[in-house]
Design goal:
- By secondary structure, this protein is mainly beta.
- The protein is 8% helix and 34% strand.
- A hairpin with a 2-residue loop joins strand 6 and strand 7.
- The radius of gyration is 17 Å and the shape is globular.
């Protein structure tokens, strides 16, 4: 409910539900193995600008638009994400649904 309400409030009508035709970014987490590592600075932004990074164990997979982009903390090389600009129409429902 939280993800759907937020998506609708932002005009992203194709998100916020796990349903056919909707965009879904999901994390699969092993809560028994979930551990945070200490935060640290890295300097990998333009002009060598810093940002705070914090890794964690226990994330089994991160799925974006139906593709696994991280498995067991490692990137798979898949990059299905896109820049979102403005209002997004809801997915078209199939006649059989």
């Amino acid at each position: 409910m939280q993800t759907r309400d937020t998506a609708v409030a932002m005009g992203l009508l194709d998100r916020g539900l796990i349903a056919s035709g909707y965009k879904a970014d999901l994390n699969v987490i092993d809560f028994e193995k979930l551990r945070l590592h200490p935060p640290h600075m890295i300097f990998d932004l333009p002009a060598n600008t810093r940002r705070l990074m914090q890794e964690a164990d226990g994330y089994v997979a991160t799925i974006v638009s139906g593709q696994v982009i991280r498995r067991d903390g490692r990137a798979t090389g898949a990059l299905p994400g896109k820049l979102v600009r403005g209002h997004q129409e809801p997915p078209v429902r199939r006649a059989a649904e």
